[in-house]
Design brief:
The chain has 127 residues and is an alpha+beta fold. It is built from 3 helices and 5 strands. It has a 5-stranded antiparallel beta sheet, with helices on one face. A hairpin with a 4-residue loop joins strand 1 and strand 2.
Length: 127
């Protein structure tokens, strides 16, 4: 644990006796530091490519999807409600839900996805 103190003491003693020997001990210290830092750098690099980068890509996709919402899109909310967008105002989206076209006002961020398939008759699908 206190190897570095002993190393400093021995380095000063060696420096008094011979300057060349002190340079060799100092070079060995740098290689030890590099040996300790290299695994940390590799771990942080792996964490970036495994966790951070994919999450940023996903967030960018979701943001683009929410910005491209338009009236008549069929959407699914994070609560599992399927509906059709009737109006969009700022951060609020009005959906018509069910065969009676019940209007629901949702926050824009509550939209999970846009449904690719359009149903010919929503009332038949709900029965």
């Amino acid at each position: 644990m206190f190897d570095w103190v002993l190393r400093i003491v021995s380095m000063t003693a060696l420096a008094d006796e011979a300057g060349a020997a002190a340079d060799e001990v100092g070079a060995a210290g740098w290689s030890e530091w590099l040996g300790m830092l290299l695994p940390l750098v590799l771990i942080f690099g792996a964490m970036y490519f495994i966790m951070i980068r994919p999450q940023r890509k996903k967030d960018k996709k979701v943001k683009a999807m929410l910005n491209n919402l338009k009236v008549t899109d069929r959407v699914t909310t994070i609560g599992g409600i399927h509906g059709t967008i009737v109006s969009i105002k700022d951060d609020n989206v009005t959906l018509h839900v069910g065969k009676d076209n019940v209007p629901l006002v949702m926050a824009r961020w509550a939209i999970r996805s846009i449904e690719e398939e359009t149903l010919e008759n929503d009332a038949e699908a709900l029965n």
